[in-house]
């Protein structure tokens, strides 16, 4: 539920609320790959690149076959 809330906040331009919703989703379920990916995206959008990189590394260590995470990590490196 909090992943969808984060997505809705992001669409509404409420970036900090979206970030908080994704963090809460991961507190409740640390294995939620979309929440972790979206958290990394939010860090990227807020220009918090070190945190974004760390989130992608965690995501891909848990889900090495997750193509969206690899793509987004590539975008971060650009």
Q: Would you report the number of β strands?
A: 0
Ranges with pLDDT <50 over ≥5 residues? Answer: none
Task: Give the helices and strands as they follow along the chain.
Answer: HHHHH
- Determine the N-to-C terminus distance: 32 Å
- Helix count from the secondary structure assignment: 5
Describe the sheet with the most strands: none
Structural class: mainly alpha
| Helix content bin | over 70%
Q: Give Rg in angstroms.
A: 11 Å
Could you say which overall geometry the principal axes of the C-alpha atoms support?
Answer: globular
**Rounded average pLDDT:** 95
Percent range for β-strand residues: under 5%
Verbal overview:
The structure is a single chain. The chain is an all-alpha fold and 78 residues long. Helix content is 79%, strand content 0%. It has helices at residues 2-11, 15-28, 33-45, 49-62, 67-77. The longest helix is centred in the N-terminal third of the chain and has 14 residues, at 15-28. 28% of the residues are buried.
């Amino acid at each position: 539920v909090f992943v969808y809330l984060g997505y809705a906040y992001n669409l509404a331009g409420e970036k900090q609320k979206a970030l908080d919703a994704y963090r809460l989703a991961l507190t409740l379920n640390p294995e939620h790959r979309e929440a972790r990916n979206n958290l990394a995206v939010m860090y990227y959008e807020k220009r918090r690149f070190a945190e974004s990189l760390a989130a992608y590394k965690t995501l891909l260590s848990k889900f090495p076959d997750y193509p969206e995470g690899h793509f987004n990590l590539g975008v971060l490196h650009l």
